[in-house]
Amino acid sequence: MNDITIYRPYKVHAWTLPFTVTVGVFAFVATGYCVPYWGYNVLILAVIGIVCAWLTKVFYDTSNLTVIFEQHGLRTIASRYDDCRYVLWEELLYAYYVRSYKRHLFLVLSSNALSPKEAKRFANRGANSSRICIDSVFVIYIDIFQDTSQLRELIENHVVESDLSRVFFHVTSKIQT
């Protein structure tokens, strides 16, 4: 039996790509038209174009982050080779649902027991960097627009110690109402 669950935590970032590309192209075209009339408007338009190009790359890279929950382990795939990881379920002993300082929900998977303060610190670092693996701790963003019931079931079946039930039921009851 081949039980594989594919989860893309930052899938929602792909929705912003048409906007950032359009604004970036418009800013660069407007910069080209305004070059003969050199002034602050040329600099402002160029900065807007550069920021939009940077945001496009960041949003594209994060929207392609993938977490694959396999029968024997957890695999992460990213655009860079350095961000790809594989870990067996036997190595991930602890799971926590933690809210970041922005109140976004994260699943923190660790081989060591974490205090609530440490788990929250990892969630905050994951929120700021959009990385999945931080210091050998997996920090996975739980998107409210996706069905994560399969993830909860997988974590409950594979992880020994988890602090999931209290937080998860509270979150799902808010989403359903």
Describe the structure.
The two termini are 36 Å apart. The longest helix is centred in the first third of the chain and has 24 residues, at 40-63. With 177 residues, this protein is of the alpha+beta class. 44% of the residues lie in helices and 21% in strands. The protein has helices at 17-34, 40-63, 116-129, 149-158, 165-176; strands at residues 5-7, 66-69, 73-77, 85-88, 94-99, 105-110, 133-134, 137-141, 161-163. It contains five helices and nine strands. Residues 165-177 have low confidence and may be disordered.
Offer a quick outline of the entry.
The protein is α+β, with helices and mostly antiparallel strands and 177 residues long. It is 44% helix and 21% strand. A hairpin with a 3-residue loop joins strand 2 (66-69) and strand 3.
Unreliable residue stretches = 165-177
Spatial strand sequence of the major β-sheet: 7-8-6-5-9
Helix and strand composition category: alpha+beta
**Number of distinct beta strands:** 9
- Evaluate the radius of gyration: 20 Å
Strand content is 15-25%
User: H/E element string?
Assistant: EHHEEEEEHEEHEH
Q: Sheet with the most strands?
A: 5 strands, mixed
- Helix run count: 5
Distance between the termini: 36 Å
Determine the fraction of residues in helical runs and give it as a percent range: 40-55%
User: What's the pLDDT, averaged over the residues?
Assistant: 83
- Global shape: elongated
